Amino acid sequence: MIEVKDLTKSYGNIRAVQDVSFEIRKGEVFGLLGPNGAGKTTIIKMLTTLSRPDAGRCMIDGFHVVEEPFEIKKRIGIVPQENNLDRELTAYENLLIYGMLHRVRDMKGEIRSALRMVDLWDRKDSLVSSFSGGMQRRLLLSRALLTVPSVLFLDEPSIGLDPQIRRQMWNVIRKTRIDGRTVVITTHYIEEAEALCDRVGILSKGKLIALDSPKNLKAMVGEYTAEFINNDGRLIQQVCRRREDALEMARGRDDGVTIRRSNLEDVFIKLTGERIE
Ligand code: ATP
After folding, report:
1. What does pTM read for this prediction?
2. Whose CA is nearest to atom 16 of ligand 1?
3. Going by CA atoms, what residue is nearest to atom 18 of ligand 1?
4. DSSP letter string, 89-156
């Protein structure tokens, strides 16, 4: 469905994306996870025709992203990181204008189903300026769904939302998977990647350093993490393959050791020595 090969992009002497390759299957929810500046948005921009790669190739549904941008645009929906809704218009009017620009045929029907998908149909006539942050992000998502795209790109879909509202957003995103739609999400929230994605590509400094299901990534580095404060007062997180190994680490420490299941943050730390969030 999506094929990315040796993708590379620099801004001056910043190497934003370096030789990144991956494939995404039809119907898959695929995540790009990494800290700020890792190159996630740059990859999304290249995949969605908004930025030209320096080198490498992206194909979507058999079409070349650089050479056939109109074919690509017909097939994709984008939820950008920045909120670019018109706050002085209603939810309905925002979708109507977008629909006219994109020549949506059954305008009324598609607006209704896109707003219903994100549970905003009842608020269709409210001004966007009266919406909470979470509602505005849901509206951005429904706008992207208006053209009934076969691939949906979500750039940090729940950025800035508090944890409870973020979970509501995840439920809405899960619903968008209908009819075998492929969903590509960038995030720096560990929980978001684990909650939504079938497979996750981990990015660090423009490079793809690991790619697999969350379960396999965690199994790769060790499923258990022992956490404790060392003699210098530093938090130590030691990833272990077996629970017994984690218990062994805890032995003899009476100052409190937590043994928990590893998460994708532990995977990132193990691979890079740095934290994501
Ligand atoms: P964030 O979550 O903060 O958006 P990201 O992983 O999406 O991070 P990118 O936005 O892709 O990262 O940025 C990757 C690198 O490229 C960063 O060092 C960033 O400063 C740089 N960069 C991105 N866009 C530009 C630009 N238009 N001009 C110059 N440098 C840029």
Report:
1. 0.90
2. 16
3. 37
4. SBHHHHHHHHHHHTT-SSHHHHHHHHHHHTT-GGGTTSBGGGS-HHHHHHHHHHHHHTT--SEEEEES
Does 137 contact ligand 1 (Cβ within 6 A)?
no
Task: State the fold for domain 2-216.
Answer: Rossmann fold (3.40.50)
Instruction: Please write the tens of the pLDDT for every residue from 5-55.
Output: 999 999 999 999 999 999 999 999 999 999 889 999 999 999 999 999 999
Residues of the chain with CATH 3.40.50.300: 2-216
Q: Whose CA is nearest to atom 26 of ligand 1?
A: 11
Containing 203, the helix (H) or strand (E) segment is strand 199-204
- For 72-131, the pLDDT digits (tens) are 999 999 999 889 999 999 999 999 999 999 999 999 999 999 999 899 999 999 999 999
Amino acid (one-letter) located at 190: I
